[in-house]
Structure formats: structure tokens, C-alpha cells
Amino acid sequence: MNTIHNNTHRHRFELETDGKVSIVEYQKVDGETLALVHTEVDPSLEGHGIGSKLVEGVLEYIEQHNLKIVPLCPFVSAYLKRHPDWNRVVSTSYTATGF
């Protein structure tokens, strides 16, 4: 598995696995905040932990770049519930209900 790539032109994070690209799409909220809106894993890779690896990599990227997130994607929200230590990168300035 490769590392997470931020494709700024397509507004998404990408992870290539076995020639297939899994993504987390985002919208820029402000200069320090990204709204994570959609996660997509190729159906042939589902059930292999790719989505969780992708989200974890995105959260690591967010933290390394001193950014915050608004978790609008249900998969990202579920991941945060299972890994509450990552709530440290969730924005306190914006809420999911504000979108």
C-alpha cells in the first residue's frame, strides 16, 4: 500500500491499492479547515480495511499540516467514533449541522 496523496486539483485524498484508487473528497472551508464529504473504496477492496487505512492517513496528513476537519462523511464520522483520540483534529469552529 502506498501513502496518502492530496490531489488538490480534484479536492480529494487518494490511496492507490492494487492499481485501484480509494478517495476521501473534501471541500475547503477556510485556510485551516477541510470538510471531509465523501469516502469511496473500490468494491473489490471493500472489507479489507482500506477505508480505515485511508481515513487514518488523511487524519495524519491533517494533523501534520496543522489543519482541522469537519466530518460530513458518514464513514469518517464512524471512524472518529471508533477512534475518539482523533477528535483532536475536528474543528470546534464549525459543525456538521452548519453545512
Secondary-structure content class: alpha+beta
General form:
globular
Strand order of the largest sheet: 1-2-3-4-5
Helix content: 10-25%
Radius of gyration based on Cα positions: 13 Å
State the distance separating the first and last CA atoms: 33 Å
Extended strand count: 5
Continuous helix count: 2
Low-confidence stretches: none
Description:
With 99 residues, the protein is of the alpha+beta class. It contains two helices and five strands. Strands 1-2-3-4-5 form a five-stranded mixed β-sheet. A hairpin with a 2-residue loop joins β2 and β3. The radius of gyration is 13 Å and the shape is globular. The model has no long low-confidence stretch (mean pLDDT 95).
Summarize the structure.
The protein is of the alpha+beta class and 99 residues long.
Key attributes of the depicted protein:
single chain, five-stranded mixed β-sheet, alpha+beta
Give the topology:
Elements: E1 5-7, E2 12-17, E3 20-30, E4 33-40, H1 50-64, E5 68-71, H2 74-82
Parallel strand pairs: 4-5
Antiparallel strand pairs: 1-2, 2-3, 3-4
